[in-house]
Amino acid sequence: MAVMHRIRIFHSVLALTVLAAYFSAEMGLVHAWLGYGVAALILFRLIWALSGAPQLGLARFHPSFKDLHLKGIMTHPAISQVLLAGIALSVIGATGSGIMMDKGRALQPSALSSFSLSDENGRERREDEASEITEEAHEYLANLAIALVMLHVLYLLSFKLPLARFMLFANKSGK
């Protein structure tokens, strides 16, 4: 299987896991497990980048503004790179802050008995509450990630349709 096909499969798994984690925010243990799943996928991607394949390098997350001119600005690679870097940083930040708040409790065998899905306010309760700043950062970064993902999708559909179709398994050629 070609590297690009592996990348789009990984991309799909990561995107679905991030979306599931985001939309399960009020589901306690499920949300935590999905968050750890996102962390595992990020770690896998970082290790995968070390394989040496140019398509897998982390340079695609670093924007290069070389040869950026007003003419053709909307299709310049820097736009995609800025969006990818923003998505990567916000997802990593949201995942890291979530792990900081959980402190590994969701991975303990007694996790089912120490977690409740929600309290009277619809918010998850734990024996010792995470700091409010970490929780706010977690929510802010998760919301930022979703906003950047929406911009990313809209940008690709508007200016890079063949790539969008390929990544969404909708390319006509079937290669």
UniProtKB/TrEMBL annotation:
Q: Which GO terms describe its molecular function?
A: electron transfer activity
Q: State the compartments where it is located.
A: Cell membrane
Q: Is this entry keyworded DNA-binding?
A: no
**UniProt record, GO biological process:** respiratory electron transport chain
Q: Which Gene3D superfamilies match?
A: Transmembrane di-heme cytochromes, Chain C
Pfam families reported in the protein's UniProt record: Ni_hydr_CYTB
Key words, A-Z? Cell membrane, Membrane, Transmembrane, Transmembrane helix
Q: Which SUPFAM superfamilies match?
A: Transmembrane di-heme cytochromes
The molecule here is called Cytochrome b561 bacterial/Ni-hydrogenase domain-containing protein
Q: Which organism is it from?
A: Sphingorhabdus wooponensis
